Amino acid sequence: MERLDGKKVADALHAQTARVVAALKQQQHEAPLLVAVLVGNHAASETYVASKIKACERAGIASRLVRLPETTTQAELLAILADLNADADVDGILVQLPLPSHISETAVIEATHPAKDVDGFHPENMGRLAKNLPALAPATPAGIVAMLAHYGIETKGKTCVVVGRSNVVGTPISLLMSQNRPQGNCTVITCHSHTVDLPRYTQMADILIVAAGKPGLIGKEHVRPGAVVIDVGIHRIDAPDLPRGYRIVGDVAAEQLTDMSGWLSPVPGGVGPLTIASLLQNTLQAYSRRRGIALPNV
Ligand code: NAP
DSSP letter at 221? Predict the structure, then answer.
């Protein structure tokens, strides 16, 4: 299979974001401001948040990190969110998930102002997305759409099979792919853990998007030759033979697809880098809509 290079697409998106921010500053506008909230010391979350802050810096977007201890109560976190919602300088808010178990993620998502919800998780944004109205779309599905657009992959009239129906990936990407939009107009089948005979459906796919969170779930027998396969799953697997002691794999057993015709967005190097790039694009959208400033077409 040929490789869809997420890093290349992400670089192009980051460069475009940086051009827009530079043009806004040239027009004497303030830079957009993204606030990240990190509760506790979850190692992977630390890394994700650091990458997001670094990406903001590179693009010229202002950022702030609100670091809170593991013992923060839900009421305290909601009070901080209320302040951020009310702060006119703040364009985007992201609360890094997962949260400690004593805090309800739903309550936190619902307490983030929809206009600042750059993760696109608030029910208002999901509802607007479902109705194909302008919305802040979740970053990973938006990244998948950006990947398809970058490579000029025709979607109209194609069969798209999505494995997974989470609110973060599977459900929003199923909606986007079925809607009347440039990277849409597919006939979509959404599979989940109760799907009987998964290969029967996945073999129908012209475009197969896999977000099941199960390493190596999809093998050769699931894929039709010539398909475009987008692997979203990401897993750290112990690999004592490697110097760092682990390797990153996806939901697709990529080594089984090497000799097949078609396209693969692999893990690592596929949609992963696009999630942050889309998050920054959402921050620009949130800035533009909330402040009523048109984004320069650069
Ligand atoms: P999730 O919330 O655990 O959802 C997984 C979905 O897959 C569920 O809908 C589940 O069905 C379905 N599923 C599980 N086993 C299945 C099987 N054997 N056959 C068919 N469907 C199955 O996970 P998520 O948040 O969507 O994330 C999925 C993967 O993507 C994870 O590995 C995650 O780390 C990765 N991810 C990567 C990025 C990125 O690269 N930037 C971003 C987000 C997520 P039920 O609904 O029936 O349980």
Answer: G
Residue 231 falls in the annotated catalytic set: no
What pTM, to 2 d.p., does this model score? Answer: 0.96
Please identify, by atom number, the ligand 1 atom nearest to the C-alpha of residue 251.
32
Best residue among 145, 161, 165 to mutate for probing ligand 1's pocket (most ligand atoms within 8 Å of CB) is: 165
The token duo for 183 is 């990277």
**Distance from C-alpha of 211 to C-alpha of 218, rounded to nearest angstrom:** 10
Which candidate, 211, 162, 220, places its Cα nearest to that of 191? 162
Residue (of 118, 101, 137) closest to 63 by Cα position: 118
96, 37 Cβ separation under 8 angstroms: yes
| C-beta of residue 149 within 8 angstroms of C-beta of residue 274 | no
Asked if 63 contacts 34 with a C-beta cutoff of 8 angstroms, the reply is yes
What percent of the chain clears pLDDT 70, i.e. is strictly above it?
Answer: 100
33 pocket-lining for ligand 1 (C-beta < 6 Å): no
